[in-house]
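name: query_chain
kind: protein
chains: 1
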Amino acid sequence: MRVLIIEDESPIAANVCDFLESRGHVVDAAGDGVTGLHLAATEEFDAIVLDLNMPRIDGLTLCRRLREDAGRETPVLMLTARDTLADKLEGFEAGADDYLAKPFALRELEARLLAIHKRRGGRVARREVLYAGIAFNPSTLAVTVDGVPVKLPPKPLRLLELLLSQPERVFSRAELETAVWGDRLPNGETLRSQLHILRRAFAAAGAADPVENLHGVGYRLTGTKAG
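structure:
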C-alpha cells in the first residue's frame, strides 16, 4: 500500500514510517495539518494515518474537509490519546474509518490499515509507476520494459514492486524477504531464486538485468533498456 502519515510527533511518525516501509509499504509523511491535507487531497494513497491533535489544522477538521471539500474517500485511520466513546464517535462523524488509541502496537496499526483498505474494496486509484524504461501498473499488475510485456509470477512481481517503490535505494535481504514472505522467512537460497526468475523474465523481453546485487549490502533497481 501507499500510506500517508499525518503526525506532528516526530518519534511516532518515524517509528510508523520505518515499520511500514520494512513491511513493503510506500510511505509519505506530513508534520502538520495543512501539509497533510494538501497531500491527501492532491496525491493518491491507499490509506491515511491521521493524528487527531495536529498543528494548523486539527485531525477532525482535516478529515471533514478531505471528505466534503476534496471529495476524497481514501480510508482514514485516526490516532489519538483521547479514547473515550464520545471522541471516537466524533472521529467517525468527521469521516474516519477506524480509530486507534495511543500507545499502540505497530503490527495492529498495519493490520487495521489493511482491513480498512480491504473494506473499501481497494478502490483508491493507483497510478502507473515508471522508471528507466520499466512500467508497472498496480491495478492490473502488468509490467512492461520499453513497451514489451514482462511476465512475472507473484513473488518476483512483489519484489519488483518493492524495488520500484524507491528506485536506486538499496534494500537489504531482510527487507525483501519480509515484504514477500512476512514472518515465515524462506531458506537462504529462496530470495536468490526468485530474483533469478525476475532477471530471466526481463532477459526474455530483450532487456538487461534491472537489479544490482551489492554484495554484503543488498539489492537495488538500476533500470534497464531494451537490447
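note: Residues 129-221 form a domain with the Arc Repressor Mutant, subunit A fold (CATH 1.10.10.10).
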